[in-house]
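Predict the 3D structure for this chain.
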Amino acid sequence: MSFQRRRFLQILPCALGSGLLLTRNEPAMAAQNPAQPESPAAPAKAAAKDHSGGTEMEKVAGIGGLFFRAHDPAALGNWYLQHLGISLTPTGEGSPVWQQEAGPTVFSPFPETTKYFGDLQKMWMVNFRVHDLDKIAAQLRAAGIEVKVDPQSYPQGRFAHLHDPEGNPIELWQPL
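Done. Predicted structure below.
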């Protein structure tokens, strides 16, 4: 493993902060009742009761990164930076890393036959929380990027769909 990648993987968990992973039955409830920010004195480790025996189970604290293959990683990374404001992987000491805001994160496997992602060959879709769905959709459209804003509002919020230049599906979510 290269030094830059190893260093990045060492600093990434600290830099990104924590998210909230939800079990299969909790996404709608959490979206309706967003988690309150943790106090600074909150423990760094998260534990949950094991459903089988009451013992404490260690669990992950949040998403530390999203890694995927690309035909042109540099160009695709630049597209995410330019249009969605996601900083690229730091390449040296002091380089900025994308800082997520605390808030709900839904973790949900879909059936392999789902059409929700569009192309059945795409195995993943990333969902980004946004503050103003209409504003970011207008920015993307002004840059020539096709965005489909769902006209319906759901109990969890509002959604829009687009694809990056390599056809990977992206969902934008404005929680209520």
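The radius of gyration is 18 Å.
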